[in-house]
Design brief:
alpha/beta; Rossmann fold; 9% strand
């Protein structure tokens, strides 16, 4: 399949748009790839091209150029804390403020949690078990009297799992959801996003005046905004959002007990503060979770970057990337086992390990000269097809469309309106994932897979495209790097390497699982239909893209963040169980 003249004509129209300066054209509007092959389709009418260019393309081009751009102006993320030490860091010339974590700070938790006698952890899904246990252990280490209590709906099968983790009705650390909400000074609402959307009114009505609502995701704010609503004015609203799934939060905390604190980085936000305690409570919560460093964001920026990120490189996009690459390699004559190793094993193993410890440039620099050419061809052809989907995805999240989609999908899990229930099915029975089972069964313990130049080029192009979209949308470098890089290579991908991408897609949070199923095919098709066609037709490499990748200021920011990364690498055994309780029980 060759690129069509329709595509070429459209790009030629872009290049000839009079409202864009020649200097902009030289760096931003170079064709991604061209072809002189004839098209099976009629060219787009000139009037339609002109209309499309005038109303849409100029704006896209202006926002999404190839030249690395500075982070857009954002709301000031400075904050005041009377308990912890705030530190200023510089990321690619942008000043940000963080709080470093560590077990040596646990004695400060009582000061941070002043006025709090009970922390209610509501839900036992992805984040609930990890956060509840980390909080309990950290407070015990601090010899604090603050109680951590789990709240579950009556009849929930998760009661047994909570009891197994040491929470019991007898000692007052396990009980009914509504009694726990009503009796807690800090309510950590860690039920699924769709459940929050259906139950927020009841949660608000049970909370004590001047109590604090804690979220680990900004989804509920996005849902309320879509309805023209806000949180009650008599409670504080904060967020601490670990940049990794719950099992990673717990796994690294346990590993770090022998040293001074290893865990998952977290962002924090203060959305509403009724009595001046919110910032210190949020920072205390993050320190107690074991966060190596905590950075500031807003609740709105958090949900936009988080929901977008999990549909992008954290889950949905990487799912689509490995599916299309595996298919491509097998069609080119590679054995299925070798194709799997050069896709999934490469990305979740050696590429992730290299990026985690040395950064993206190290992946490129470790290749041979011939390997670099393959990397560049893949990167050049994949960057814009990935960005196109990422751009659309971000705007769907920001507009509330994706949030509405999640809420409606959650309601379709149950019978209603005379229609049957449609819970999510699994993806792990297709041929690719069965091949993966065989590969992992015979894999040596420390085998990180081969460093495939083409696969590496596609993956890094995806990562850089996501970074650029978040930059243009005004997110801080801390948030950009954590959502596009650290969470992937230090939290999610090690679990994918242990159990497979399909296992993650089938067992992570409901919102992420829905997002992967919706967006992964889009990345698959766009790469197959655009990027791979360009490579196979011998399209010239966009040297501007390669040059900009090699000199992008994000690499300097990544070096700074690398010094703040967890002090140990996460260790995930091949039988690591991170199945959510309700999924394990149903299966």
């Amino acid at each position: 399949m060759a690129a069509t003249t329709t595509t070429t004509s459209f790009k030629a129209a872009l290049l000839s748009t009079p409202s864009i300066s020649s200097s902009t054209k030289s760096t931003v509007l170079k064709p991604r790839f061209t072809s002189s092959s004839s098209s099976r389709y009629s060219p787009i009418p000139k009037s339609l091209i002109a209309h499309h260019v005038s109303t849409k393309t100029n704006a896209i081009v202006a926002k999404m150029g190839t030249v690395p751009s500075p982070v857009s102006e954002t709301t000031s993320l400075d904050f005041h804390t009377s308990v912890f030490q705030k530190e200023k860091i510089s990321l690619a010339g942008h000043e940000e403020y963080i709080v470093r974590g560590g077990q040596h700070l646990f004695p400060l938790l009582d000061d941070a949690f002043e006025g709090i006698k009970q922390i209610g952890v509501i839900g036992w899904g992805s984040q609930g078990p990890a956060q509840a246990q980390n909080l309990r252990d950290s407070l015990a280490e601090a010899k604090s009297d603050v109680v951590v209590k789990i709240g579950l709906r009556k009849g929930s099968r998760s009661f047994a799992e909570a009891r197994a983790a040491g929470f019991t009705e007898e000692n007052g650390t396990l009980g009914d959801i509504w009694e726990t909400v009503a009796g807690s000074d800090l309510v950590l609402l860690l039920i699924s996003d769709s459940a929050q959307a259906d139950n927020y009114e009841k949660v608000f009505s049970h909370m004590k005046p001047n109590s604090i609502l804690g979220l680990s995701h900004g989804f509920l704010l996005g849902h309320l905004q879509s309805l023209g609503l806000d949180f009650p004015k008599n409670i504080s609203v904060i967020a601490v959002c670990p940049k990794g799934m719950g099992p990673s939060v717990r796994r690294l905390y346990v590993q770090g007990k022998e040293i001074n604190g290893a865990g998952i980085n977290a962002s924090f936000a203060v959305h509403q503060d009724v009595d001046g305690r919110a910032t210190d409570v949020a920072l205390g919560w993050s320190v107690a979770l074991g966060s190596p460093f905590t950075f500031a964001t807003t609740l709105e920026q958090e949900y936009k970057s988080d929901i977008f990120g999990e549909r992008g490189i954290l889950l949905g996009a990487v799912h689509g990337v490995v599916e299309c690459l595996f298919r491509r390699y097998v069609e080119d004559g590679m054995s299925e086992e070798l194709a799997y190793k050069n896709t999934v094993e490469c990305i979740t193993g050696i590429v992730s390990k290299t990026i985690s410890t040395k950064g993206m440039l190290a992946v490129y620099n470790s290749l041979s000269e011939e390997g670099k050419k393959r990397f560049e061809a893949a990167y050049s052809a994949s960057y814009y097809p990935c960005m196109e989907i990422l751009y659309e995805c971000y705007e769907d999240v920001a507009s509330g469309s994706e949030i509405c989609s999640v809420v409606l999908a959650g309601r379709r899990f149950y019978e209603k309106e005379g229609l049957p229930a449609f819970p999510m099915g699994k993806i792990d029975q297709t041929r690719m994932w069965k091949v993966g089972e065989r590969v992992r069964a015979t894999r040596a313990k420390d085998d990180l897979g081969p460093l495939c130049p083409f696969t590496s080029g596609v993956f890094v192009a995806l990562m850089m495209a996501q970074i650029e979209v978040l930059r243009k949308k005004g997110h801080s470098y801390s948030e950009i790097i954590n959502e596009s890089l650290i969470e992937a290579v230090d939290s999610l991908n090690p679990f994918m390497h242990a159990r497979g991408v399909s296992f993650m897609v089938d067992n992570c949070s409901t919102t992420a699982r829905l997002g992967s199923r919706k967006w992964a095919p889009r990345f698959d098709y766009n790469l197959t239909q655009q990027a791979f066609v360009a490579v196979d037709s011998g399209a010239p490499i966009n040297q501007d893209l390669i040059s900009n990748f090699l000199s992008d200021p994000v690499h300097e920011a990544i070096e700074v963040c690398a010094k703040l990364r967890p002090t140990v690498d996460i260790s995930v055994p091949p039988d690591a169980d991170f199945v959510r309780p309700e999924l394990r029980q149903s299966s």
